[in-house]
UniProtKB/TrEMBL annotation:
It is a multi-pass membrane protein. It comes from Pseudomonas syringae pv. helianthi. Residues 14-336 form the Major facilitator superfamily (MFS) profile domain. This is Drug resistance transporter, EmrB/QacA protein. It is found in: Cell membrane. GO terms for molecular function: transmembrane transporter activity.
Length: 336
């Protein structure tokens, strides 16, 4: 990719479009949780209820690295517009679902679209912002997740209680359309690929199978199955074997989907581990707490957001402050 110089006004316009995309993808992790009891009551299906959230998370996780590679090959703008379009269309399918199976399938499509929005947004910032300033913009992005953590449960609770659970998905239609228009108008002049695309098809298939099997196995355990269950063993065994083949293949192919040398970078590994472990408590607050307050303590649809508002408000401002400080020499290690 060939980097192009962007003026400050152009960077601000692009940043606004990217933050809208990140906010939408994060919002759908939080806005749905408070509507789960209402969804279950209408469809009278408990078995697939957990998959309303899990399907989105699994498909998003698998899609992120694939979009990253495709963005290098075909250009970030095309992939961002595709992800936004798919996410918005899938939101319509979610709102129109007539069964739990249809809703889960629509959530898979939604996660695939959101994976592009998350992955390509980060890559575009690296294209247009010099390394010294990236910490500040990464802080802005991180603040969108905190905003979604506050706004998602509140909006989801209000719409479920006074309108319908379907509106937690239909609200994405005007927001997604607006983000799509802004992205189409602002994401111009981005770096474009200068070489013929070479896609690692086998690596892509192996990674999809391996990660999907691993996440499905973990989800099954979270739903009450144990390691002695044949289904769980089959999923985890498939994941282990497939991912081992994936790593072996990626080390030898000329155009790997996921370059293995990245795992030798100590800074990258530290960042990944930090995100991995902090996500445990974040997901518990965002997803599990609404169910607890509604089913155990008997709180209303909007009870949970009030209990976590102070913590989430702090999460809103800390990323921005850290982002401003991170571009100063010698500060990053102290922040960790």
């Amino acid at each position: 990719m060939t980097s192009l110089t962007q003026t400050p006004p152009a960077i601000r316009s692009i940043l606004f479009a990217l933050m809208m995309a990140v906010l939408l993808s994060a919002l759908d992790k939080t806005i749905v949780a408070v509507s789960m009891p209402a969804i279950s009551a209408q469809f009278r299906d408990i078995d697939l209820l957990a998959w309303v959230i899990s399907a989105y998370m699994v498909s998003l996780t698998v899609a992120v690295p694939i979009y990253g590679k495709l963005g290098d090959l075909y250009g970030r703008r095309k992939l961002m517009l595709f992800g936004l379009g798919l996410f918005t269309l899938a939101s319509l399918f979610c709102g129109m679902a007539q069964s739990m199976e249809q809703l889960v399938l629509a959530r898979i499509l939604q996660g695939i679209g959101a994976g592009g929005m998350v992955s390509v947004s980060q890559a575009i910032i690296a294209d247009i912002v010099p390394p010294r300033e990236r910490g500040r913009y990464q802080g802005y992005f991180s603040s969108m997740y905190a905003v979604a953590s506050v706004a998602g449960p509140v909006l989801g609770g209000l719409m479920t209680e006074y309108l319908s659970w379907r509106w937690v998905f239909l609200i994405n239609l005007p927001l997604g359309a607006a983000a799509l228009i802004v992205a189409y108008r602002t994401l111009v002049g981005l770096p474009v690929p200068q070489r013929k695309p070479v896609i690692d098809y086998l690596g892509t298939v192996l990674m999809i199978i391996g990660l999907t099997a691993l996440l499905l196995g973990i989800t099954e355990i979270g739903q009450g199955h144990n390691l002695a269950d044949v289904e769980v063993q089959l999923l985890l065994g498939t994941a282990l074997l497939t991912l081992a083949i994936f790593v072996w293949y990626e080390r030898r192919t000329a155009e790997p989907l996921l370059p293995m040398h990245l795992f030798a970078n100590k800074s990258a590994m530290l960042c990944w581990c930090t995100v991995f472990f902090t996500s445990f408590q974040a997901i518990s607050l965002i997803v599990l707490m609404p169910l607890r307050y509604q089913t155990v303590t008997g709180g209303g649809q909007t009870a949970r957001p009030c209990t976590c508002f102070r913590w989430l408000s702090a999460c809103r401002w800390v990323p921005i402050l850290q982002g401003d400080a991170r571009h100063k020499p010698g500060v990053t290690s102290h922040l960790f």
